[in-house]
């Protein structure tokens, strides 16, 4: 556990006995193991750098405290040293200590106390002394410039700079908080329509008032306090959108739960997250009927009789009299604010923890990359429980654009809204977009709309059809762990002359990293970058602003995911000479047939080129001869004439004309539907388990 010493430079001195007692009772038990196991000591010189887990600390004058570290090469443990340099801590403020004085103090401490230390605990550890002595120049530099650092002892000694975090009262800094987007838009555009849900309309003034009242209700009615987890189970409705602002405004953590889960799966998430209360849409009340947690039921009517409206109504008085001023602001933009659970396809779902900073920057990135504007109207098709619907609730609000909410993916309703509400943007998986563009009501839209697709690469057929309907495609890639999109297939100026097939090949690539993120790499097993030749395969790894804080209450999974200082996606890819990344497959989806690696994405891409194919999924199936071989599952386009209807052997022959024989599926079956998540993403693991059921050994 990390422990941070706070060093206020202007507080009055405390009695020596008080400080000594605090050091003995709190610090000693955590520091005396330094020479026996990995320990972490934060010695920081910024007043605001204080762990939320620490009690109020007496003043520690960090420059002199830090100077003591220069004497550590002669010490084998920290605790016996602390009382020894205590007199130095309570005599001189840091403002009058120069670097030279601190170095002198270090020497004095070492000389005066060394004999006492040796007499008490024995000779210093050679490893400890040598390790810390090598770090002394770095410590000296930190002291000279008053920079905070972290000292870690494990198999080796590591000393690194910690990120400087100035006081939030400074005139040149404030903590990034996406909740502020709502307050700003409500101030500048109070009368602009913020939310459309059926016949209901809320202006930004009304949305702001409701969210603030919601936050006060959470605090006053349900006793929600900073850091508490608030679960919400609801479709894309105004209450769900309001929760994305109200819960963080109450300094709590929003935990939006998938409405398609089974009751036992919901119960696991409630317990794992430690949720304190549940906000639940009436339709899904059965998912939490056995939970003893307090509940607020949402009827989604907007009427005074709605329990949710009554709950929010208790906060209107404070919302009107105090507004945002009565709500606490976050102490740190690095605090957790949202908990999104993964689908759990390989075990129990993991809770992905987002921060205020991450959500803020992800929202800014999406606003830029999707080219949102004041006139934008965003139709929310992706459920808000999925990666906070890619953080677009905050992006749309930041621009003061309009949110259009629908309870479920209803293609009739989607086309009605597209034509009547002047929608300019919508997001979804390619499988969802396929259904949209092939709907009987599909017509060419009067104005172009931007369709951001993620989850898998768009096919040439889909791109061509979307172009016919005046839909501009934006292909992004990301994971729940990266706040949704983190790379984009950026359109180049010369792509306009490409054929639909060539354009699809370009757009199928995952592209380059978002403007607001830091870096993306494709690396081999030794964390070395693969060559930019479009052939060498490696794993996509990330780090930067758009990477999660970690897996909630799962240190082991977090450590594994961040191995080597980068977040590991599990996606295998190549990098082309122009730097564009192209995913070859998920590591678990690669088929190893007779020793040859086969990408299921490549096989799917080939099958999807057939004009009769609507959707396709390819997985590994057992083979007595080759260990495993590709097997395809295909949905044909609706309304095909008899001569256009094809069978599996016909599609296999189609593949053999276009790709190596060993890559071609051994079988293809025609199906009515494919297993998908609530966001429309294919669940290949369901098909894999179906194929491998009863087999003792699986190759992959």
TrEMBL record:
Recorded GO MF terms: ligase activity
Pfam families in alphabetical order: AMP-binding, AMP-binding_C
UniProt superkingdom: Eukaryota
Domain AMP-binding enzyme C-terminal, residue spans: 602-681
Domain AMP-dependent synthetase/ligase span(s) in chain numbering: 183-552
Keywords: Fatty acid metabolism, Ligase, Lipid metabolism
One BP annotation, GO: fatty acid metabolic process
Transmembrane intervals: none
Family the entry assigns: Belongs to the ATP-dependent AMP-binding enzyme family.
Name used for this protein in its record: Uncharacterized protein
């Amino acid at each position: 556990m990390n422990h941070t010493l706070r060093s206020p430079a202007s507080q009055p001195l405390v009695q020596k006995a008080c400080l000594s007692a605090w050091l003995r009772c709190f610090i000693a038990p955590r520091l005396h193991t330094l020479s026996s196991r990995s320990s972490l000591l934060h010695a920081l010189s910024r007043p605001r750098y204080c762990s939320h887990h620490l009690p109020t600390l007496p003043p520690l004058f960090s420059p002199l405290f830090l100077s003591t570290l220069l004497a550590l090469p002669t010490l084998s443990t920290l605790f016996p040293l602390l009382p020894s340099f205590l007199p130095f801590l309570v005599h001189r403020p840091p403002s009058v200590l120069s670097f030279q004085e601190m170095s002198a103090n270090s020497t004095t401490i070492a000389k005066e106390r060394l004999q006492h230390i040796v007499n008490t605990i024995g000779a210093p550890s050679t490893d400890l002394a040598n390790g810390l002595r090598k770090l002394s120049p770095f410590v000296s530099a930190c002291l000279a410039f008053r920079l905070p650092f972290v000292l870690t002892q494990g198999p080796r000694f590591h000393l690194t700079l910690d990120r400087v975090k100035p006081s939030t009262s400074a005139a040149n800094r404030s903590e990034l908080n996406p909740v502020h987007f709502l307050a700003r838009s409500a101030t500048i555009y109070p009368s602009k329509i913020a939310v459309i849900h059926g016949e209901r309309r809320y202006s930004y003034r009304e949305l702001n008032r409701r969210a603030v009242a919601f936050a006060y209700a959470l605090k006053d009615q349900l006793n929600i306090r900073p850091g508490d987890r608030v679960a919400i189970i609801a479709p894309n409705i105004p209450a769900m959108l309001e929760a994305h602002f109200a819960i963080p405004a109450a300094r709590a953590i929003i935990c939006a739960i998938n409405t398609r889960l089974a009751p036992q799966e919901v119960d696991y998430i409630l317990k794992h997250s430690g949720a304190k209360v549940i906000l639940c849409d009436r339709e899904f009340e059965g998912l939490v009927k056995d939970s003893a947690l307090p509940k607020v039921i949402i009827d989604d009517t907007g009427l005074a009789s709605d329990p949710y409206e009554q709950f929010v109504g208790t906060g209107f008085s404070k919302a009107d009299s105090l507004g945002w001023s009565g709500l606490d602001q976050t102490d740190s933009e690095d605090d957790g604010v949202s908990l999104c659970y993964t689908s759990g396809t390989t075990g129990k779902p993991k809770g992905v923890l987002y921060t205020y900073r991450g959500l803020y920057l992800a929202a800014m990135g999406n606003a830029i990359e999707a080219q949102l504007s004041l006139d934008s109207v965003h139709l929310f098709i992706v459920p808000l429980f999925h990666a906070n619907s890619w953080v677009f609730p905050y992006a749309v609000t930041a621009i003061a654009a309009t949110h259009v909410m629908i309870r479920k993916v209803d293609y009739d309703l989607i086309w009605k809204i597209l034509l009547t509400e002047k929608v300019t943007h919508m997001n979804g998986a390619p499988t969802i977009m396929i259904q949209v563009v092939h709907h009987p009501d599909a017509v060419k839209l009067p104005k172009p709309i931007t369709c951001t697709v993620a989850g898998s690469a768009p096919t040439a057929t889909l791109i061509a059809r979307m172009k016919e309907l005046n839909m501009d495609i934006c292909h992004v890639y990301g994971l729940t762990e990266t706040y949704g999109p983190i790379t984009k297939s950026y359109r180049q100026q010369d792509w306009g002359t490409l054929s639909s097939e060539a354009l699809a090949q370009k757009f199928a690539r995952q592209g380059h990293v978002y403007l607001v993120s830091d870096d993306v790499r494709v690396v081999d097993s030794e964390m070395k970058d693969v060559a930019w030749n479009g052939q060498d395969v490696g794993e996509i790894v990330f780090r930067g602003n758009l990477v999660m804080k970690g897996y909630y209450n799962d240190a082991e999974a977090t450590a594994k995911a961040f191995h080597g200082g980068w977040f590991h996606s599990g996606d295998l890819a190549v990098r082309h000479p122009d730097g564009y990344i192209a995913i070859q497959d998920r590591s678990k989806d690669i088929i190893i047939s007779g020793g040859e690696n086969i990408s299921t994405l490549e096989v799917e891409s080939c099958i999807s080129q057939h004009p009769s194919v609507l959707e396709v999924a390819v997985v590994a199936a057992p083979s007595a001869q080759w260990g495993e071989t590709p097997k395809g599952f295909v949905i044909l386009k609706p309304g095909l004439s008899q001569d256009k209807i094809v069978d599996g052997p016909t599609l296999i022959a189609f593949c053999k004309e276009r790709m190596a024989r060993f890559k071609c599926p051994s079988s293809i079956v025609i199906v009515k539907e494919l297993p998908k998540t609530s966001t429309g993403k294919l669940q290949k693991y369901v098909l894999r388990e179906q194929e491998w059921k009863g087999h003792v050994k699986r190759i992959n």
